[in-house]
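call fold(seq) -> C-alpha cells
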Amino acid sequence: MFVLPTSIHHQNALSIRQEGLAALEKSPDNLLISGEKLNAFDSTALSVLMALVRAYPSLKIVEAPKKLVSLSKVYGLDAVLPLVTRVE
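ret:
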C-alpha cells in the first residue's frame, strides 16, 4: 500500500506520482493507496491520483479526506477516481 504524504501541492506532485508508481509496481497484488495522512492539498492531488489510476485501473484509494472526495465531485472525477472516504 502506498501512503500519500500529509500535503500535495504543485511543487511536490511529480515526486509523489513517481513514488506512487514505484510503490505500486513493487506490490501489484496490493493496489491500494491510503489518504489517511493527507490533510493539505488542492486540485493538484487529483491530477496525481488520476495518473496513478491510469497506470493501475484497478487501484483503490482508501481513507480519503472528505474534502478530497468533495473536490473530485466538483471536477467531475468522482466517477473515475475510486475514493473511499475516511471516518473523521
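The chain is about 40% helix and 20% strand.
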